Amino acid sequence: MSASNAVAFRMWPAPHLQRVSGLHPDALKPGTAIVRPWGEPLLIWAPLGQGGTAAVNVCVPLATAASDGTLDESYLMALPRDPGVYQILTASEVAELRRQPGIRPLLQVVKLLNPPPGASAELAAHCRERLRQEGRLLAGMVGDPSFPVYLGRADEPLPHLVLSFIAGLSLYDIVGNPGLVSELGFTPAGWRLPWRFIYFAASKIARAVTRLHLRAQVVHRDLKPENMVVVPLTASGEAFFEVVILDLGVAKELVRDAEDLPDLTAVFGAAGATPRYCAPEQLIGSAVSEATDTFALGRMLCEMSQGSQALPDSVNAGELLEVARRPLPDCTHPDLHPAVRVWMQDLWREMTSFDPVRRPALAEVLRRLKHCEAMRMRGGR
Q: CA 126 to CA 146: how far, in whole Å?
């Protein structure tokens, strides 16, 4: 590495490295490095989120960062070979590293097993198996731009997955703040998302979930805006984007699942997914199918159109089944002709039917979305 490319960090002497004890995801602060039995060490960059069974952090592969001069190689050389977690950078050094222009293209994501407090050995084993399954599923979706790239998995020093970092906007944030679509080249419809964005987003999600059903033979079971990242793209100078679907941690196989893999929902109850988007069959522990994901997408479609959650966060588990029997609200989107609004509200009400048999297949959802868009275009709205 040439002196001109080296980052002006002082060398952190090996004796000053501090091994982190306890090996719990909460101990992985920015500046700690995970030394693994395979692959290069990972430097924790920033926390990304924490769910019921996993903690997610943005990380930097240390060997890659050292090889291109983004990070002085002395940091890499100071790390021992023994798998473990080590404090290697101070907070000020992490802040300095974040200012390096070459760091962002290197970012990855590490998803670490983090069972609920007091979890039994059996539950911890279920969570570990789910993490392994998520890795297998993502490896099977390789080449699909609607899912993160799987980069590897290990059980030491902590069970974890390594995935590509998706730079984009959370759909949850976009629904809450429609003005964000201006970053994607769209103009908000007042305080709502423009219909063109809703149409493209819902269609892309439906196609991606269909590929997941057909290619991986699983039901996602936790579709929600928080698990969708909208990635800006440029196509022929026009506004365009991709939707990347995250978190296959509670996905259920459509084939052989009951025999070969413990069902986390049977252990967690509805809390294994997000209750507000759970289909009735999830809430009562019945068999799930592709229609289970259709239900969640129907609620998301309604929320994107109406500009508010279909169900408030305050709805408790005891009320969810009763609420699921009620039809979703009328469509009032200002971009749509009244006749098209009726078509749209009929669609999301059918998608969220209490009886999964009455929900349209995603291929039918796509056909009707396209028809509604064609009607909108003919109506000049």
A: 26
Equal fold, 14-164 vs 169-379: no
Domain limits, the chain? 14-164, 169-379
Please answer whether residues 18 and 29 qualify as being in contact, where contact means their C-beta atoms are separated by less than 8 angstroms: no
* Dist CA 299 CA 306 (whole Å): 10
CATH fit for domain 169-379, picks 1.10.510.10, 1.10.260.40, 3.30.40.10, 3.30.1360.40: 1.10.510.10
* 14-164 classified as CATH 3.30.200.20: yes
pLDDT score for 238 = 55
Name the range with the highest mean pLDDT among 134-143, 234-243, 259-268, 310-319: 134-143
Average pLDDT estimate for 320-324: 84
88 in Cβ contact with 60 (< 8 Å): no
What whole-number percentage of the chain has pLDDT above 90? Answer: 55
The DSSP-derived string for 107-157 is -EEEEEE-PPTT--HHHHHHHHHHHHHHHHHHHHTTT-TTSPPEEEEE-SS
Mean pLDDT of the chain: 86
Q: Degrees (nearest 5) of the Cα angle 250, 256, 258? A: 65
pLDDT digits (tens, 9 = 90+) for 15-65: 367 888 777 887 789 999 999 988 899 999 999 988 778 899 999 999 998
Say which DSSP state 215 is in: I
Cβ-proximal residues to 312 (8 Å cutoff; 6+ apart), any chain: none
Q: What is the pLDDT of residue 255?
A: 62
